[in-house]
Design a protein that fits this description.
The protein has about 200 residues and is an all-alpha fold. Helix content is about 75%, strand content about 0%. The protein is built from 10 helices and no strands. This is TetR/AcrR family transcriptional regulator.
Length: about 200
């Protein structure tokens, strides 16, 4: 963990806690990591750790909310600035893939650990996931209205998004096929599956 601490030396204490917590949650699962272990990993005593965060769920909420909010914000930007449904899909796919590659631990937590949140926090993050899915839905429906895409099907959308989301399980950002190359392949699959018949 010492290497990780050095690589996060330029972050604020809270940002460093979130970054290292995401790595621990992604590697071991949210429920398998305790506050004592998190404190040791970030080299902060219990009092100092609780000065920066209120609880472990607080950390999970911040990680999950930040990254899905960012995806929603960028998706809405694409809707406002690009009219072509095909280009919209390609931009959404490329941005999602590079985000997962650049923040793989955080997106693993965001996609896998969401149901560990409770109450209003869970509802809020689930709503944000729904907003992100709605952006893709809107693109597909717009394309259908323009005669470019086949009729919208919610199962098709779930399958396409799942293809992207689950890359956190196997993608190696520095592997032979980088995130942009994977995004290009996935975008081909997406466009082929939604093309009008």
């Amino acid at each position: 963990m010492q290497t990780s601490l050095k690589s996060h030396a330029d972050l604020s204490p809270r940002q460093r806690i979130l970054k290292i917590a995401a790595k621990l949650f992604a590697e071991r699962g949210y429920h398998a990591v305790g506050m004592t272990e998190l404190g040791e990993a970030v080299e902060l005593g219990r009092g100092t750790l609780y000065h920066h965060i209120k609880s472990k769920e607080d950390v999970l909420y911040d990680i999950s909310r930040h990254y899905i909010s960012s995806l929603v914000e960028h998706g809405n930007h694409i809707l406002k600035t690009e009219a072509d449904p095909k280009l919209r899909l390609q931009l959404l796919g490329k941005h999602l893939m590079t985000t997962i590659a650049d923040h793989q631990a955080e997106l693993t937590v965001c996609f896998r650990e969401i149901y560990s949140l409770t109450g209003e926090r869970r509802n809020e993050v689930l709503m944000l996931h729904g907003e992100y899915e709605h952006i893709w839905r809107q693109v597909l429906i717009d394309g259908e209205k323009k005669g470019i895409f086949r009729p919208y099907n919610p199962i098709r959308l779930k399958g396409l998004l799942g293809m992207f989301f689950y890359t956190y399980l196997w993608m190696k950002p520095d592997g032979a096929q980088g995130p942009e190359a994977i995004a290009d392949i996935f975008n081909e699959i997406v466009l082929a599956s939604v093309a009008g018949v």
